[in-house]
Write a structure and sequence with these properties.
- The complex is a heterodimer of chains A (107) and B (199).
- With 107 residues, chain A is mainly alpha-helical.
- Chain A has seven helices and no strands.
- Helices cover 75% and strands 0% of the residues of chain A.
- Chain B is mainly α and 199 residues long.
- Chain B is 67% helix and 0% strand.
- Chain B has eight helices and no strands.
- Chain B starts with 8 loop residues before the first helix and ends with a helix.
- The chains are: A mainly alpha (107), B mainly alpha (199).
- Chains A and B meet through helix 3, helix 4, helix 6 and helix 7 of A and helix 2, helix 3, helix 5, helix 6 and helix 8 of B.
Chain lengths: 107, 199
């Protein structure tokens, strides 16, 4: 069964994408272009349906979507850094010094 | 200061304009962590981020009279913060990353090229630590305007519309830059995952 599926998938990937657009209404390129709206949950229901139908039998697009979404999550994890506690006190002190003293002390 | 002041930004701005110093403290308390996170994500340097936070709140204090309430206070603040962070980047060597090189590949027939779905990889956890480094370097190599959009959307969680207002862009331009920035990072992770599979 798995073999048959892979054979069909292989066959499909050797044929022009537009031939398959008819059954789901969307090709791979269009799907990739919609990913921002897809992750925002901003797609119209009929577009979302077409996208889901495409994903149901396009393994590369499913892998693309999974990794696109994971990239967004990983980016947040990798570069979102909380403000160190000591910096809060330092900032408060800096602002107090700079703003509430007579001008002249600023460098 | 420990007791949270739940006044709206509009009220606090009004009070600050009228000379109420305590309102400024509340605004600093409310927004310092966001400004720091943005500055650190944009500059990837703790000293620069610290200076950005200081500059931002000095500007807020000094320019509050010119803030006219047409935009939300947070939008105005994010604009000041993004500009301050971008100023820090100006002094650095410009990166020459070619985005085109990292955009998705389609086969001649128009299908998306089959890649590694590293989210399904059993080594995904092992991958994660190194993957973070790849992402950090990738973000640092993005052109500044792409980086700003990515940070405001994916780190700060602003909407497309809010980012458009902060950066003075159309919503369409925001979505385009966000998408390309994510595509570039995704492709860098893909190449890394492919390298792992080969080795």
């Amino acid at each position: 069964m798995k073999k048959v599926f892979h054979f069909l998938l292989k066959l499909r990937r050797k044929l022009p994408a537009r031939l398959f657009k008819g059954h789901c209404g969307m090709d791979c390129r269009e799907l990739v272009d919609l990913l921002v709206d897809y992750l925002d949950g901003a797609l119209a229901p009929e577009t979302l349906n077409a996208l889901d139908r495409h994903l149901a039998d396009c393994e590369p697009c499913l892998a693309f979507l999974n990794t696109y979404k994971a990239t967004r999550d990983l980016t947040r994890e990798a570069i979102a850094e909380e403000m160190p506690e000591e910096l809060r006190a330092k900032l408060a002190g800096f602002l107090r010094e700079t703003l509430r003293r007579p001008p002249g002390g600023e460098g | 200061m420990k007791q949270a002041d739940l006044s709206s930004d509009v009220k606090l701005v009004e009070r600050l304009k009228a000379g109420d110093e305590a309102a400024f403290d509340v605004l600093v308390e409310r927004y310092q962590a966001k400004v720091y996170r943005l500055a650190k994500a944009m500059t990837q340097n703790p000293e620069d981020a610290e200076e950005v936070v200081q500059d931002v709140f000095l500007s807020v204090y000094r320019k509050i009279q010119s803030f006219d309430n047409r935009a939300a206070f947070s939008t105005w603040l994010y604009r000041i913060a993004t500009n301050a962070a971008l100023m820090k980047l100006r002094g650095r060597k410009p990166e020459s990353l070619s985005l085109e090189e990292f955009l998705p590949q389609f086969t001649e027939e128009g299908h998306v090229r089959m890649g590694v779905d590293w989210t399904k990889n059993p080594e995904a956890l092992l991958l994660r630590q190194e993957a973070r480094e790849i992402v950090k370097q990738g973000v640092e190599a993005l052109p500044e305007d792409y980086r700003a959009v990515l940070v405001l959307r994916d780190i700060e969680g602003l909407s497309n519309q809010e980012v458009a207002e902060v950066l003075g862009l159309s919503v369409l331009a925001v979505k385009g830059r966000l998408h390309r920035a994510r595509l570039v990072l995704r492709e860098q992770l893909e190449r890394y995952a492919q390298g792992l599979m080969r080795s």
